[in-house]
Design a protein that fits this description.
By secondary structure, the protein is an alpha+beta fold. The protein folds into two domains: 4-38 and 189-220, no CATH class; 61-171, OB fold (Dihydrolipoamide Acetyltransferase, E2P), CATH 2.40.50. It has three helices and seven strands; from the N terminus they run H-E-E-E-E-E-E-H-E-H. Strand 3 and strand 4 (100-109) form a beta hairpin. The chain is elongated. It starts with a helix and ends with a helix. It is a multi-pass membrane protein. Keywords: Cell membrane, Membrane, Transmembrane, Transmembrane helix. Belongs to the SURF1 family.
């Protein structure tokens, strides 16, 4: 009878922790399927930019557009693994029908010289994106230097539609920038680590329960 409470406590704790770990494994399966769907969408055959793109329906839509690449740039301070601090460059693309869109043309390292260029007709292949990078702590832009990609605000600053093409390829490319295409790599997927944490805690709980029962046995021996 003296072992009943610690055994019950141990069983309930282990059951809760194992169920949380199992739930995270189900979340991992769901997230992997979602990422696979996003990757398939990103790499699909490009289409023309829709007349009225929807930020939810058309997110990551692969597109191709021809037009005049502008020279009015906004630079966004960012960081890339194994590269360091960079400036992403957002500029304009004026299509033949007069529509003006935003283009994330790529990046250069902070401190690299800015290459002079003229307006030029180019073909841009990439993906539509409405990044969610701003919050209440994001500093306001400092002139042409921004600290997050805010599509509506950037569109207002450059006089374009609130539509951003993140370039995969610009041909010809007068910017000299390395493109930074959309990918699923930036989407968090930590469910396996969470699952291992919960299962590890379950093992610790089991060890603590066994130790408690051993202590009770010694006291009553």
């Amino acid at each position: 009878m003296r072992y009943l409470f610690p055994a019950l406590l141990g069983f309930c704790g282990i059951a809760v922790l194992v169920s949380l770990g199992t739930w995270q494994l189900r979340r991992l399966e769901w997230k992997n399927a979602m990422l696979a769907e996003i990757d398939a969408r990103i790499t699909a055959t490009p289409v023309a930019v829709p007349a009225t793109p929807d930020p939810d329906v058309d997110r990551f839509l692969p597109v191709q557009a021809e037009g005049t690449l502008g020279v009015a740039d906004l630079t966004v301070l960012a960081s890339i693994k194994q590269v360091g601090a960079v400036h992403r460059v957002v500029t304009t693309l004026t299509l033949k029908d007069g529509r003006r869109l935003l283009v994330d043309a790529g990046y250069r390292r902070v401190g690299e010289p800015v290459a002079a260029r003229k307006e030029q007709i180019v073909s841009v292949t990439g993906n539509l994106h409405w990044p969610d990078e701003t919050d209440s702590f994001t500093p306001a832009p400092d002139g042409s230097l921004w600290f997050a990609r805010d599509v509506p605000a950037m569109a207002a600053a450059l006089g374009t539609e609130p539509v951003l093409i993140v370039a995969r390829e610009i041909a010809p490319n007068p910017t000299g920038l390395a493109t930074l295409p959309v990918s699923s790599e930036g989407i968090p997927n930590d469910h396996l680590e969470y699952a291992l944490t919960w299962f590890g805690l379950a093992l610790v709980w089991l060890g603590m329960t066994l130790f408690l029962m051993w202590r009770i046995k010694r006291r009553t021996a």
